[in-house]
Structures are given as structure tokens and as C-alpha cells.
Amino acid sequence: MSETRPIHLVEVVPPPLEVPDQQPFIEASEFEARLAALQQAVDADWIVVYGDREHAASLIFLTNLDPRFEEALLVLGRGTRTLILGKEDVGYVPVMPIEVDVICCPTLSLMGIDRSGGPTLEGALRELGLGQGDRVGVVGWKALEPGEWGGREPAIFAPAFFVDLLRGMAGSVFDTTAVLTSARSGQRTFATADQIAVFEWGASRCSSWVHAILGAARPGVSEHEAFRVAPWGGEPVSYHPVFASGPDVAVGLRSPSSRRLELGDAAVVAVGLWGGNTARGGLVAASVDDLTNASEGYLERLAIPYWRAIAMWYETLAVGVVGGEIFEAITELLAGEEFSSSLNPGHLIHYEEWLHSPIRRGSEDPIASGMVLQCDMIPTGIRAGWTINCEDTVVVADRALRAELSARHPELWARIRARQEYVRNSLGVRLPDGVLPLSCTSCYFRPFWLSPSTALAFAQ
Q1: 266 vs 6, 308, 377, 380, CA distance in Å?
Q2: SS3 of residue 65 by DSSP
Q3: 382-409: per-residue pLDDT in tens?
Q4: DSSP-assigned letters across all residues of 42-58
Q5: Left, alpha or beta for 387 (phi > 0: left; psi -120 to 50: alpha)?
Q6: Are 457 and 12 in contact (CB under 8 A)?
Q7: Can you name the CATH fold of 2-23+187-458?
Q8: Sequence ranges of the domains in the chain
Q9: Domain 43-175: top CATH class
Q10: Torsion of CA 374, 379, 384, 388, to 10 degrees
Q11: How confident is the model at residue 293 (pLDDT cuts 50, 70, 90)?
């Protein structure tokens, strides 16, 4: 087991940082299959899927349309499928590879825009035929757990402006979000080969950009200046980019500022694109010799035990492993350390940065083929002036999915194989065949940012 093997800071070459040139896409037939599967899974006259700029993932998954400025509804039922959109998103409809009817509802447009000349939301729904006695399933942006809601009406995590309207119009309105988002059975929880290729486009870029930012982070350089080396080409982000350093590093979600880095600073940087996320936290130093007495023991008391847990995560992940067992294994490994893992040590990632997580306390949800997962251990309880982070994206794939990836996306498969070999041969991590790194830098961790040729690895 990884927890008994010695770990050292060693000289290593950086991992292969290859990213795809051509952006993959999802065929229309797959979108058609997703819509059909959703309707088959929900016993209702109508299914209404909500989306807005922040909560766009389900609409992207089903239609390829992400609302850019306004709220949007996808209405499925009685032989029709219709998007109800505001004035600006109507012009965005050509991004969809499938045929969907569109109703322009000015009510969904921004304040100050002329919102006349079209149906209200109630009018649009009545135009489709939704009315008294109908059963309506609503897909919001997350589902609540038992015990989280004591209201008289069923809990639906979506804006009241349309949930209340539906309840006034229909006979029964209920939440069906989990059909898409459940960590055990959600339709968005399992990625096809083509969806994996789309997500690797984002995941590989995140990791290569963060690697470049670490290389530019030097004493005297501002966070903004270091961040500018990332060759962002306009790819959609899944959260605000992160760069925090110095005394404010505890504010781990802060965006880059004009603060200039100082020798010995704690610092963290993170970038998330659709389907991927990479984060790194460490010290702006070349070695322990650059540290003050306050940072004495950083390597032995934080960096090495933290990376040991990261390595265990990669080595334990496999089809059929129960998520709760992974949670408990990481918790037990860190039990004697000065810090613990905040939130969940790993979760599902999708068009949003966090979809759900089978890896949680008491979870009986198994890790399954097609799950795209984020290695995500955020340490809590560490001393001031220290930080650490090593987040990357993988997909778990059985033999059949690996064969399909190899056949449909041979260049992607070659990148994955190269990343696997690096993790095994350069870092000494016993990576299972079914764990496929979508990030270029999976498991590669430099605690000292000014020492680009060193990383933590198992003794070999």
C-alpha cells in the first residue's frame, strides 16, 4: 500500500503537457438519445429543465445551449420539445445540433429591455398545452437530501418565479433533478467516449495553464502578471480563476490581484474549464533553505503526508470500489496528521466544477465506468503561512470504454497512455489501468514553486 512506502522530493522532468488541437464535439444523435432517456426515466406529462448562466450544465448536456445572459426553460412533453428563451438567447440557438422549437418570452429578458411583443411565461406554457391536472417534473440545479426540507410543498431547488407558476397551472409539480445528477444513477454521472473527449479538451488546458503560471510565479511578480502567461483562448470557465498569495492565501477562492509575490509566500492557483479543473498550492520558494523558522517542517508535516493521501486516492480508485470506502481510507490515513481533508476527497465534475460525489461519508455508491472525477483534497487545520493543493481530473473506465476511447479518439488515447506511464514511472504511483488522467499533470506536485525540476514521488 502507498502509505508504507517512503516519499522523497526528487529530480523529475515535468509531465507531458500535450493538449488537443481540434475541439471535439457531441454528435446530434447523442443529444437525441439523452432527451429520449430523460423522458423515459420520468413519469410525467411534462419535464421542465431550468437553466441560467451559472446553472447551465443540464441544458448544455441536453441541447448544447448554455444561457449566456438570461434564464431559460427546456420543456419536454406530448410530442414536443421547446426552449423558452429571452430575446438575447434566441440568437444563440444555432449552437444546437438538434431541432428544438423556440418560443421567445420577453419576460426572461434583462431589465430595461423592451419586454413587450411576446407571451409571458404563463402564456408560453399555456401555448404548449400545459394545464390543470398535468404532472410536471422539474429539473433544477441540485437535489436536496432527506431531512433538508420541511415545507408543505415538495422541495425544488429552482427559482420561485416559475416553480410557483407551474404549481398554479398544473395538477402536480415535483422535483426530478436527481434523474440527471444522482451520484449513483444520474444520466450526467456517466460520460460517453465522445463526452470524455470534450472534457479532456478542458482538463488538459487547465493543467497546462496552471503549470505555466507556476513557472511564472516569482518574487516581485504580481499575481496578475503570473496569470497572464496562461494562453487563454476564450474557452468557457466553470468558476472564477483563483490566485491567492501571502497573508490572504486562506481566502482560497480569491481571484488574481496586483499583489506582488514575496519569497516564502504561501500561494494557490486554480483554473476550471468545462469538464476539468486543476489547482496547485505551495510555497514560493526553491527549497527549505528559503523558509523562515515559521515554515519549518512544511515538507515533513504537510507536503509529504498530503501527497501520500493524493497517491492513495489514485491507487484506490477503481470500478466497483464503494465511494464511502475511499472517504474512510483517506480520513484514516490523515487521522494522525495536523490537518484533515475538508469537504470530500474527490467528486464528480462535469460542465460545472462540482456535479455530485459518490466519495462521501457513509456512501454506498460505487465508482463506475464513465465517471469523470476530480481529485480534490482541500486541507483544513493547517498553520498560517502554509498551504497545499493538488487537484486534477480523471475518468474511470472499464475495458469496453477504454477500447472505445482508443478506437474513436486515438490521439486522446495516446495522451492518456503517456500520462499514465509518467505517473507510474516518474512518480512511482501504482495507477490502475482503469484510471485515465484527463489532466496533463495528474498526481504531479511541486511543493516549492521555484524548483521546477523537483516533485514528490515514491522512492524507486
Answers
A1: 25, 20, 17, 15
A2: coil
A3: 888 899 999 999 999 999 999 999 999 9
A4: --SSEEEEEE-SSS-HH
A5: beta
A6: yes
A7: Creatine Amidinohydrolase (3.90.230)
A8: 2-23+187-458, 43-175
A9: alpha beta
A10: -40
A11: low
